[in-house]
Amino acid sequence: MIFNKLKYFIICISFLLLASNQAIAQDKEAITFEVKLSKSRLGINERLRVDFAMNKDGDNFTPPDFEGFRVLMGPSQSISSSWINGVRSYSKTYSYTLAPTSRGKFAIKQATITIDGKIYKSLSKNVEVTAAVDKPNDQMSVEDFADDNLHLVAEVSKTSPFLNEAISVVYKLYVSPTINVSNFRPLDNPKYNNFWSQDMPFTRYDVQNGTYEGKAYRYVVLKRVVLYPQKNGDLTIEPLSLDVTLEVPTKKRDFFGGRIYTQTNKTVSEENV
Predict the structure, then answer these.
(1) How far apart are CA 216 and CA 211, in angstroms?
(2) Are 102 and 129 spatial neighbours (Cβ–Cβ below 8 Å)?
(3) 59-73, 88-102, 199-213, 256-270: which has the highest mean pLDDT?
(4) What is the reported pTM?
């Protein structure tokens, strides 16, 4: 009888020690706070997702200034927690969606978070923004409608000029009547490598009516430049990129049945040179 009680007592102590060791192991788990990027190299017409993730809940999150980028969305917060074989797994993430404002090499600088009274800092990560890519694969859904209704076109007077023969390039922004443009600004001007170039400035932008791929559009001439080839062979003109503020119709309607518009920004690059 005494032996059975002693055996039961030893088993209970063993369970308590096991539970205690698990709790101590969890408490001693290394706290991590790190930044994750969707890509380290992107075109100026693409988007960058930045996640700041930690494995223990914290307070007083402070993001970096995101120099070289504009915040499109964020911070959005997500939390996941699970128990597997008595071990707790926890993750908390602050996420941002960014749009580049210019080409170049930038740093996603340190963010800070306070966990258990101690300040943790994420590592800085470098990002390179290049010229516009042909097929950006991460445009935001609110811009999908604008993809078919906003076009930046470069019209070249002659595609096979002689050496030092003058050719003109005219940049036009075509806007469908279904959307409204309230503002735009150049993000990245083309570099005319192997050309001698001369800009043809003008004082105001005149909105005109025209057609694009057989459909009615409004358009404005943004830029004219005269180029003189300085080299024989196939020469490439880098694309012009714009940040455009526009109003896009939604599926919602107001009290009187009118379409409700939402404002967004879209990066658009020329479609043909």
Answers:
(1) 5
(2) yes
(3) 59-73
(4) 0.53
215-235 per-position pLDDT tens digit:
889 999 999 999 999 988 888
Mean pLDDT confidence for 62-76? 90
The sheet that has 48-54: what strands, in order across it?
Answer: 33-37, 48-54, 87-100, 69-84
Longest dimension (CA), the chain: 110
pLDDT at residue 243 is higher than 90: no
Cα first-last separation, the chain: 95
Would you kindly state where each structural domain of the chain is located, as residue ranges?
33-130, 141-269
Reduced to 3 states (helix: H, G, I; strand: E, B; else coil), residue 40 is coil
pLDDT at 46 over 70: yes
**Would residue 47 be called left, alpha or beta, if left means φ above 0 and alpha means ψ between -120 and 50 degrees?**
beta
Cβ within 8 Å of residue 32, ≥6 positions away: 53, 54, 55
Fold of 33-130: Immunoglobulin-like (2.60.40)
Indicate the burial class of 253 (C-beta count within 10 angstroms; 0-12, 13-18, 19 or more): exposed
